[in-house]
Amino acid sequence: MSKKGKVFAAVFMSLLLLLAGCNNSNSSGSEGEKSATASAPAKTDNTELVVGLDDDPPQLDPHFSTAAVDRQVFHSIYDKLVDVDEELNFVPMLAEKWDISEDGKTYTFTLQKGVKFHDGTPFNAEAVKFNFERMMDPNAGSPRASELSSIEKIEVVDETTLKVVLSEPYSPFLAALSDRAGMMVSPKAVQEKGKDFANSPVGTGPFKFVSRVKQDKIEVEKNAEYWNGAPKFEKIVYRPYSDENVRLTNLTSGDVDIISKVPPKDVEKLKNDSNLTLSETSALGFQGLYLNHKSEPFNNKALRQALDLVIDREAIIKVALRDTGVQAAGAIPPGTWAYDDSIKPTKKDVEKAKKIMAEAGYPDGFEFTLQLSPKPVEEQISQMIQSMAAEAGIKVKLEIVEFGTMLDNMDNYKFDAVRLGWSGRTDPDGNIYALFHTDGSINYGYSNPKMDELLEQARVEVDQKERKKIYSEATELGQEEVPFIFIYHEKDYKAFKNNLQGYKHISDQMMRFHDVSFK
């Protein structure tokens, strides 16, 4: 078969799988969700914003969160020390300003005055110190610990001044503080609630937590005394719709005002919907396959390389994603300063994959289980990978797992491979260190001293050009070692009603509602 014929056959096969995936999805709505075909009257209460999420947030404590969907709610309940604007510049939030010493090791933060947590306790330098020490506690197991590991000393200068001394320069520090490591929780609430804090969170944000019914809704209400001016809505209701068809139906029927993710198959349709606005921006993360390096088969580099070689990224993007993504060569997405366009994505090469497996003692291939979320696009991508792997004799068993269970399985190494991505960070360190370094928060057993050395070097290097060179070398080493199988970088789409105004779409994909209102 000619090359052109092979591409056509692959796309045709994938279209058949797409139809199968869509048929499955129509009956997969979870309890409490409306039917994809049901009609409902549009809501008329403009004091309340209803947000459709792509999943149910596993928990609401930012210092222990590992899910991107958690962060969508965090941005209403919590403030951070630093935020980013639409150009990804760092801008003040709870830290009114900051000074960095010439040696890059001392950060002096001047905090906003008169800020209170939702429980009425003051936000001050002591509270920031408590938050940092909570995340850095080695017995606590916070995923944020590695982001703050360079902190050597925290000094409360006065009520609104905090000095942080690092053991060595750490270029991604402000970027870390613009995400969950910079989110401030109430010390009093943490001490009183203990582990239950994750179910009844207290921050300083524009909205206060009210209640939660798992798999149904999370409600927050207006913080009328918000330090940066009260928000426009009296209440926000977050509703999880893991079924993308149900999520979209609730938006188009009028029951939901904005959704966090638009299914790729519906992007073109929404562009032509006169009642809705479709917003698009590039995203900072990556999508692919997490591999368990602590057990067979993926503790074997040759088998990781073989699986990487059988994946046709172009076909997945064209068929499953409807061209709403770009092929990935590594953890750093196009359009960001550390991206190196000379490093190309791995091309499908079944014969090379077979040769590598044979040389490694696996002439007949191998088998593994791929866990995935119960979503049509995830099923579609996974079925395509299953079919592509079979061409080289690799047998893939698909296992659909609820999202929270999937994260638990990953934490406990109860998986071979998982179809999942990473939402991305403003500094490349937040993508690549977390994934490739031995101590990275999303590293599942991969360890290479040379990789560790490169990533540690990139953290202390202050010259951006030099940092980019280091990240390029790490990306190339990653292509050889295959700690993770990169497939694509997604574009982020938000869809909302036309009467919503003030929404700013930032590449970190997080929705912020303080400045949003109805017309």
What does this structure look like?
With 519 residues, this protein is of the alpha+beta class. Helix content is 31%, strand content 21%. The chain contains 15 helices and 20 strands. It has helices at 3-25, 68-77, 125-136, 173-177, 187-193, 244-253, 267-271, 301-310, 313-319, 350-359, 376-390, 403-411, 429-436, 449-460, 464-481, and strands spanning 48-53, 82-84, 90-92, 95-100, 106-111, 151-158, 161-166, 207-213, 217-222, 235-240, 258-259, 276-282, 286-291, 325-327, 367-372, 395-400, 417-422, 484-497, 500-501, 517-518. Strands 1, 8, 9, 10, 11, 12, 13, 14, 15, 16, 17 and 18 form a twelve-stranded mixed β-sheet that branches. A four-stranded antiparallel β-sheet has the order 4-5-7-6, with helices on one face. A hairpin with a 5-residue loop joins strand 4 and strand 5 (106-111). The chain is globular and about 70 Å long. The N and C termini lie far apart (58 Å). 47% of the residues are buried. Residues 1-41 have low confidence and may be disordered.
Please summarize what this structure is:
By secondary structure, this protein is α+β, with helices and mostly antiparallel strands. The protein has helices at residues 3-25, 68-77, 125-136, 173-177, 187-193, 244-253, 267-271, 301-310, 313-319, 350-359, 376-390, 403-411, 429-436, 449-460, 464-481, and strands at 48-53, 82-84, 90-92, 95-100, 106-111, 151-158, 161-166, 207-213, 217-222, 235-240, 258-259, 276-282, 286-291, 325-327, 367-372, 395-400, 417-422, 484-497, 500-501, 517-518.
